[in-house]
Design brief:
By secondary structure, the protein is mostly beta strands. Helix content is 2%, strand content 48%. The protein folds into two domains: 3-151, no CATH class; 161-484, Methylamine Dehydrogenase, Chain H (7 Propeller). Strand 29 and strand 30 form a beta hairpin.
Length: 487
Amino acid sequence: MHGGMKRLLALTSTLALATACGNDNPSVPKAECQVEAIDVSACQLSSLSGVQPEGIWNLNINLNDGSGAAAAMRLSGGGSNTQMLMGLAATERQSTPESFFLASEFQGSNNVTMRFAVAGCSSSGPGQMSGIFRRCANGTADMKGTFEAIRLGRRAGEAEASGVELVSEVKLTEATATNVAVAHGHAYVTAGAKGLITFDLSDPSQPRQVRQYELSNDYYTDALVNGNTLYVASRRSGIAVFDITNPAVPVRLRSVPESVVEVNSLALDGNVLYAASPAPNAEVYVYDVATPAEPKQLRRYFVEGAEPRAGEVPLHVAAMGGRLYVSNWSFGMTVSDVTNPASPKLLGRFANGMSAATAVGMVGDRVYAFDAGEDWGAHLSVLDVSAPATVARTGEFRTRPEVSIRSVAFSGTKVYLAYGQDGLRIVDVSVPGSPQQVGYYNTWRETDAGHGVVFLEGLSKVHVPGDGFVYATDSSRGLLIFRETTE
């Protein structure tokens, strides 16, 4: 299985995997995923006695075929209704000083009972556990492997914040903030299935909601402002185009293209708009937006050499100076010449890792891309892209393998990272070969509602529009506005 499937298993385990098939006899749904069926005779079971029985844990699952996934589980001291595994309510738990077993299951298609199970094998400390992973379809194991689990908490030695203060926080009602764009004194927050929410920022310490554009059967993921036009990326209707001549009242004009496509990310370079569309065709849409409210399609660009069936799909786009930078998941980050945007040409790529988000900017007289993966062990790579045919990594920044970067922004000589459960991280890259953290804010709290369902949670997007504030979205806390307190 390829890198794309790692992402699939991590994010959509309850849906995409429901089609797996196995033994058609539903009377034995547990079988190979029962605790008795998992051989732990070679394990160091006595080491499990000190494992903490509660909390939010991230899992790194390594399957026997060489593939894997990052996932999550939520444990509690008692009451199975609060426990979860792989995004599903746990249906069985066994925990003694010398054993740990947790399972969850759901009904997939064709009456197939899918069951996930983890059995502890050893522990090196209260917040770490290794063991055996299985997934069964009607009792037959169709995935086998091992796992490592780490209980999430604040990084050792860190306070709540350093060099950053929280100016305001707005929790959305029954909605998840997925991204934010700021212009004309307003914040435009994409809220997933709840559409677009507009906030008046006259007083950034007290953002005031002034409008919500409701959705039916769609999901908003990204936003970008071009003058008096707002572009919003969606999962089902491409790019929604809004008129924001009155900034408080976005008026939806149209969507492009006029078909059901998923758009994950938007980028603007001059009068050209780029949209990363991972599905259904794994392509980048290119639009002329000389008239911002009327995008004219110039090209549907398929990055040369990428194999969508192998998970090599465009997840994110950045653009600057006639170059297009595409995060193509397992294909890596590619650089294309778009001086003629109707005819993009691949110039080079950085293939040493999964690429999920990239920011681009000048440091000194050279162009750098700041590229991040989205997985267990993901980190920031500082890439010299001034000679795209030979992209060179000059530096790296990482916190810890069990927490993943979600998005990247660049301003001045700093990179701003939405680093999942490690919150906001501000990294000075004025010396590109030696990135230095200069500020952070730990936004994630174990007790916040909704945690422990998926690996990718916490701070999700970061936006630095140059007005003196840093805007971010968080899977639980909503819209957060920060200010740096040190230079």
